[in-house]
Every structure is written in structure tokens, then in C-alpha cells.
Amino acid sequence: MSTQTPTANPPFPEEHFSVAVIGGGQAGLSMSYYLKQRGIDHVVLEKRSVTHTWREQRWDAFSLVTPNWQCALPGYPYRGDDPHGFMKKEEIVAWLDGFVRHVDAPVREGVSVTRVAPRPKGGFLVQTSTGQLAGSLSADQVVIASGGYHTPIVPRMAERLPASIVQIQSSEYRNAAALPKGAVLVVGSGQSGAQIAEDLHLSGRDVVLAVGEAPRCARFYRGRDVVDWLADMKYYDMPVEEHPLREGVRDNTNHYVTGRDGGRDIDLRKFASEGMQLYGALEDFADGALRFKPNLGANLDSADDTYNRINASIDRFIAQNGIDAPSGEPYRAVWTPQQERTALDLDASGIGSIVWCIGFRPDFSWIDLPIFNGRGYPGHTRGVTAQEGLYFLGLPWLHTWGSGRFSGVARDAAYLAERIAAPARFDARAA
């Protein structure tokens, strides 16, 4: 917890708002939409520019992995002519630009929040830094809508790799041509890692992929997108407390699949049969060699088991409801590793660059309130914390699968806006 004390004499008078929304992505803008509907004065603070993540932290060939019909921000659903397609990066940005205009939120861009703390007279003090200027404002209630992906994860062993190896994180990757000549090591096989490996592979680059424990799912099964089936099965309406893993589902790695070129499976085994080199999880770098865990086979098998298990649940749903659908069959491996390779000589490999795709850590160190668990994650129920007047929005599985996505953030924002507008009503329900 921070030991800072509030600025005694801020360089400009303290402003006060009923609500301060921190973060100007789709979550913060969705919150603003509902607050405006209720006539609640507020401000949205964004340290960079609104929806900047979609413009600045996606590779050139990026496309949504969920179908366009799931893009349902408040008052602004997808209205294009391809609801079952997958918007590409430039289309996503254009759609979000329209949402920004639609909401017309009271945003202050380029304002970084450095501290949120209780205010002696009630409510919250929000300290900010804008370039060389620093100040503060106060708010009766605060919504943290800054997401949960803040600090890129890069292992300390990266410091020991030769300076000649170009290292970037997944959010910095743009295209294969931007990387130096030579093979590319992609570390991690979650959504970003698998899709970046595919992008490099399709461009003709030699790819070495360190495969982690990420699961995978089919793009299409029995005549429809798997997302359509799961929607009919009400999976996307399941609240976190009803999920078999409960809050543990928030730690799950996303299934890898792609919306590229109209959507398809990502089959790492197929890539291997075409020349991509697959290894187990990267463990260390020592004596000039990359060291991998002997778990490639197990990780591939586990991903396929998840793939088949999801499809089997669809089979049961079809049978139980008497739905006329094309037949389906389990996935069968098209390639199997003959042995577990646990070392790769870096010089001999020809690797000239590494793309780290092992995720992000949340960083809420600037929130000076006792609401976090032992891993620095906020404790909350549907975004409502134990600190009266403090809320979170846009986190993965905040309430449902779609909470951190275009499909579910509107429902969460509407719920919190109602809570903010009439907290006594909710207190009565709890009682």
C-alpha cells in the first residue's frame, strides 16, 4: 500500500465530481454512457487516448476471434452486413470511433491517475499527473475501468540472452517484416502467441514455438460457429459464481482460435507438419542453449482434449434438443512429437528475434485502499468492492465470460450505473 500523503497545495483548485471513471476503453466509455443516461455528473480519465489499445497494441493482420454479432456496446450494436464474420483491425477501430462519437463522454485524455485514496471528508481523492503538471480531484464514487492487462510479463532470464537477439512483447508485434532476418521464437501459445505464430508462419518465416498449457477450441462445428452454439447453450450468461471453477476461472488462459480469413481452427500440429518447430514450455537459458520443459506432448494433448470436450457438450445439446445438424466427429492428431526436445542451441538455431506472448500482470498499486487479495487482485462481487463507492468494470470474468469483452461489458456497466444511482436500493436487497 502506498504511504504517500495527499498533495497539501495542488497547483490548481480541486475539482469535484459525483463519479470519476478511470480508463477510457470500451469499459469506461460504456460506464459513461449509462451515467449520462441517468444525468450523473462524471469525468473519464484516460492516460493515453480513448480506445488506444485497439489502435496501438494489435498486429496488422489482427481480427476478432468472436463473431461480429457479439459486438454489442451500449446503444451501439454491430450493424454491418457480416454478423457472423470477424472484423479486422481497421474495421474494429472504425467501429470504436463511431462508439466514441456516440457516447460523447466527458473524457480527459493524457491524464494518468497516480493514486486513489479515501478522502477525509468522504468519497475519494484522485491524484493525477499530466506531463509536468500534477493535481488532484475528488469524487463521491470511483469506477476503475482500466482493465486487467497492465504490465507485460517477460521472464528475468531474458536479461541473459545475447544483445543481438531482438526481443519484443506481443503488444509490440506488428508484422513479420518488422522483425530482423532469421528464425523467430514465439514464447507462449495462448490467443496472441498462437495467432502471432500463425502470422509469422503464413509469411514464410521460420518459427520456433514454445507451447504452453493454453486450451483450444474449434471455430466451426456441426454447421455453425462454436460461439453460436455456446450462446444457445447460455454459456455466456453463466455468472462466475455458477462456473465449476468459481473465481478460479479468472486465471484461465483463453482458448486459441482465429477469425482470420473468415475464421478457422488453429492447429499447432498442422503447423508442425508444415515445418514449424514445436517445443514444450520455455524454462531457462543456460550455457548458450534454450531449455524447455518436456511437456510438448502433454500440452498438445490437453489442448485437444479441451477442443473435443467442448464439441462433445455441443453434441449433447443437439441431441437433447432434437436439433437437425450435420454430423461431427472428434479431432484426431495430424502430427505427434516423436520425442521431447528439451534444449536448443541458440547460435545454431538461427533465431534472430523473440516475441514474448506470456501475458500481462495487473498493476493496481496506485489504488491506496484495502480491497486486494494476496495476489494483488481486487476482491469484488460483480464489480462491487467492500469499499463503499469503489467499483471495477471490464475485468475478465467480472461477472460473466463477456465481462472483459465487447459482448458483456454493457450489461455490467448498466448494473453498476444502477448501483451508483441508487445504492440504498441495493443495500435494502442485501438486507
From TrEMBL:
<keyword id="KW-0560">Oxidoreductase</keyword>
<dbReference type="InterPro" id="IPR050982">
    <property type="entry name" value="Auxin_biosynth/cation_transpt"/>
</dbReference>
<dbReference type="GO" id="GO:0050660">
    <property type="term" value="F:flavin adenine dinucleotide binding"/>
</dbReference>
<dbReference type="InterPro" id="IPR024000">
    <property type="entry name" value="CHP04046_FMN-dependent"/>
</dbReference>
<dbReference type="InterPro" id="IPR036188">
    <property type="entry name" value="FAD/NAD-bd_sf"/>
</dbReference>
<protein>
    <submittedName>
        <fullName>Putative flavoprotein involved in K+ transport</fullName>
    </submittedName>
</protein>
<dbReference type="GO" id="GO:0004497">
    <property type="term" value="F:monooxygenase activity"/>
</dbReference>
<dbReference type="Pfam" id="PF13738">
    <property type="entry name" value="Pyr_redox_3"/>
</dbReference>
